[in-house]
Design brief:
This protein has one domain. With about 425 residues, the chain is of the alpha/beta class. This is Protein trichome birefringence-like. InterPro entries: TBL, TBL_C, TBL_N.
């Protein structure tokens, strides 16, 4: 090959080396040009106002995310804006039951030796326990937990006497059980009587007592209980026989309701029982109740010195005999109920508003101030907390056959302890 040919060949190779990447170079140039054009078009597309909006949107999204996080934190750190309990300001009846597993009762029917078998539901075989973990929360204020030491300090050197029926006896037993566990064995005692029972906290020189007077006024069924309501006669104008046992007491807590609600007219007597069945008048329950409560109120006004004695009246404890009241049409009274009624303001047929009005009217006209502990509405929700078939009758536990017949044997009047009456005492202590 000649020198000229070699040189020509070299130039051709160099030429093709330069020419071969041109398509690639062209492509790259096109891409760059397209990007520049697109960028220019985007700049022309967005005005300054549009950019502000875009930034604003970006900030709004950021704020939204931040707000969501704040709300989540707020839910985690829920601020309770209810005010501290004030008996003059707080409507305790307005609120709800809140389930709280962490709430442990201050006693059990196995740990407290002073409970009647009638209300010792767990000991009697009740298998569920959720009814013991509901906490009453008023809507407007915070209700302080029951503090046994505080209760005993407030009772130092005093007598606290519960007066009324078996439901009041349950509240008395609840109060005793709430405080007794912090008292050394040698510093406490209990004396049970037919009509008057006394628990002593010796170190505090305090007594927590119960006096049996189911009507408050006298009746022929006070000590020797007459089972047939048709044969009961009430001396509606006198409390003297009972009231002599109420003298010198520092804190009196009264109740009366369920014995009046037999569904029959009340045989009401003025004067003496010496005439036997003669001389009585049959009155509708609310009418007889008003007369009897006025008799009680007159005794309080004429006898109690409000500088020395505090007087309380516990409103009626509801009965739950009709499951249709809380829309459980297949149910049998309170049997097998395990949750409270959720409907706000629920009011069943077991609470007589006529009786509530009588209490309001009579107490409202009294000279001696009486603190009304309104347990009716809060207890209305608690269809789950009665002793039901886990109770006794005639001093004996229900048999299996009786338990299988809740229509005739379920007790939907009395409450399991620990249970709802503990909340009544929580409210009472907050008022002391």
């Amino acid at each position: 090959m000649s020198l000229a040919t070699s040189q020509a060949s070299a130039k051709m190779k160099a030429y093709y080396r330069i020419k071969l990447p041109l398509p690639i170079i062209t492509t790259i140039i096109c891409i760059i040009a397209f990007v520049l054009l697109l960028y220019t078009e985007r700049l022309n597309l967005f005005s300054s106002n549009s950019i502000l909006k875009a930034k604003s949107c970006s900030r709004r999204d950021g704020f939204k995310k931040s707000s969501e996080k704040t709300e989540e934190k707020a839910e985690d750190m829920l601020i309770d804006d209810r005010f501290d309990f004030d008996p003059e300001e707080c409507n305790v009846a307005n609120g709800k039951w809140v389930f709280n597993r962490s709430i442990k009762p201050l006693y059990s029917d196995r740990s407290c030796p002073y409970l009647d078998r009638q209300v010792s539901c767990v000991k009697n075989g009740r298998p569920d326990s959720d009814y013991r973990h509901w906490e009453w929360q008023p809507e407007d204020c915070t209700l302080p937990r029951f503090d046994p030491e505080l209760a005993l300090k407030k009772l130092r050197g005093k007598r606290l006497l519960f007066v009324g029926d078996s439901l009041q006896r349950g509240q008395w037993q609840s109060f005793v059980c709430l405080v007794e566990s912090i008292i050394p064995e040698e510093q406490k005692s209990m004396k049970r009587g037919r009509s008057h029972s006394v628990f002593k906290a010796k170190e505090y020189n305090a007594t927590i007592e119960f006096y049996w007077a189911p009507f408050l006024v006298e009746s022929n069924s006070d000590l020797h209980i007459i089972g047939d309501p048709k044969k009961r006669i009430l001396k509606v104008d006198s409390v003297a026989k009972h009231a002599k046992n109420w003298m010198g007491v520092d804190i009196l807590v009264f109740n009366t309701y369920v014995w009046w609600m037999s569904g029959l007219k009340i045989k009401s007597l003025w004067g003496s029982f010496s005439n036997g069945d003669e001389g009585y008048e049959e009155l509708d329950a609310p009418v007889a109740y008003r007369i009897g409560l006025k008799t009680w109120a007159n005794w309080v006004d004429s006898t109690v010195n409000p500088n020395n004695t505090r007087v309380f009246f516990t409103t009626m404890s509801p009965t739950h005999q009709r499951s249709a009241d809380w829309n459980n049409k297949e149910g049998i009274k309170c049997f097998n109920e395990t949750k409270p009624v959720k409907k706000k303001g629920h009011w069943g047929s077991g609470s007589d508003k006529r009786i509530m009005k009588v209490v309001s009217d009579v107490v409202g006209r009294m000279k001696v101030p009486v603190s009304v502990i309104n347990v009716t509405q809060i207890s209305e929700y608690r269809v789950d907390a009665h002793s039901s078939v886990y109770t006794e009758t005639g001093g004996k536990l229900l048999t299996e056959d009786q338990k299988a017949d809740p229509l005739h044997h379920a007790d939907c009047i009395h409450w399991c302890l620990p249970g709802v009456p503990d909340t009544w005492n929580q409210i009472l202590l907050a008022h002391l």
